[in-house]
Every structure is written in structure tokens, then in C-alpha cells.
Amino acid sequence: MKIESVPTRGRTLDHAAFVYDFFEPILLLGKQAEYDRHIVSLLELKTEDRVLDLGCGTGVLTRMIADKLDAKAGGVSLGIDAAAKMIRVARKKRESETCRFEVAAAEDLPFETASFDAAVSSLFFHHVPLDLKQQSLSEAYRVLRPQGRLVIADMHIPTTWMGALVSHVSRWFFLQPQIGENIRGVLPSLIENAGFDPPKHVHTYFGYIAIFITQKAD
Ligand SMILES: C[S@@+](CC[C@H](N)C(=O)[O-])C[C@H]1O[C@@H](n2cnc3c(N)ncnc32)[C@H](O)[C@@H]1O
Question: 116 C-alpha to center of ligand 1: Å?
């Protein structure tokens, strides 16, 4: 069945879907597996968990999470992306018993309240404008169960000159003000505004990608 991209003011990557798996390992300087494993470890998964991956792209992280889950116990890792071509590639390469993909916008999730144990996103928030960053976080809060965990890895205030160079060049090369918002450091306050506990900044990769963990308050 043909699937269509959903309308969003976010920057979707339909045009890059077929080359994304080639370029991402290069952009992450050969550390993609280490970076993804770190994110997965922070989720502290149980085999029966239902996990949502926002802006999943071709689903590498979604699948790594899925491999820790048990379908018979109810475990599932569900990746959503607004770009149908990304979802097509993800389904073809990475779908499994515990790994599912759907086209959806993070700011308007088609899921029931409190229906996930954990949510994650990697390199998604610098693709959407400020109001959609906030709306996506509010939606993540809504679909998580109380005490559900949220892990976000994304561009943030650079901590090295190399990180600053990469961030500012990306912002101007791609003409992407959404990156500018991230590097000004907006994410922690948006996370708290959505209702989550104050996020903990656990690590910075490459001097510009920060990892935050938090949870939905009771
Ligand atoms: C840089 S990619 C990150 C993909 C993957 N999470 C990773 O770490 O490689 C950002 C993704 O966000 C998606 N995206 C942009 N706006 C979106 C929205 N409003 N809702 C859901 N996905 C969106 C894009 O289509 C793209 O696949």
C-alpha cells in the first residue's frame, strides 16, 4: 500500500531517504554504533516496554531498541517520521516482530494518552521550528505513562571550537534557523515547559550533540 508523507512545517528528508544510511555514519565520524548504544543504555529498557522513536529516519536506532524487546511480552519499538520515503526505507531494511514504523508528525501523534513506557529522539529537534519543538515535547509527554523515560540527543550549545564550527556552518549552509534555536540552548527549558522533570545533560558528542534524559512526572 502506498504511504504518503504528512504535512508539517518541520524539515523532512524525503529527498535524502535513499542516501541517508550512507552519509549518517560519516556525519557521526564513525561513532554511530557507540552513540546509538549509549542512547539505548539510557532508556533502561525492560523486554516488555513500548518505546516511541520520534523522527526515526531510516530506523537504525529504532531497530537497536527493538532488538532488546520481546514481542511475546508486549515489547515494541515504534519509529515515526513525517517523511514517507524514510519510513519506506526503514520498513524495508529494519522491520521485525518488535520493530514497527509509521508515517506521523511528532507534533500531532496518532497514539493514545499514556500508551508508551519510553520515548527517544535523535537529531530530530533541529529539524522543526520552536513552536513545533514545544508541541512535539507536549505530545511525547501526553503519550508517555507516568514516570515514562525520555531520552533526547540533539544539537545544543557547542562545547568545543570544532563543535561551534560544525554547528554554525550547518546553520548557515542549510539556511536552517531551527539549528540556530538549538545552539542557543532552548531544549532544556522546552522539555521542562512540556511538564517533564528538569532534564539531566548526561554527555556531549563531538562538541555539539547533547544527550538529555528526563521522565514524565507522576
Ligand atoms: C536528521 S534526521 C534524524 C533521523 C534519525 N533519528 C537519526 O538519528 O539518524 C531528522 C528526521 O526528522 C524527520 N522530521 C522532520 N520533521 C518532522 C516532524 N514534524 N515529525 C516527524 N518527523 C519529522 C525528517 O524527515 C528526518 O527523517
Answer: 19
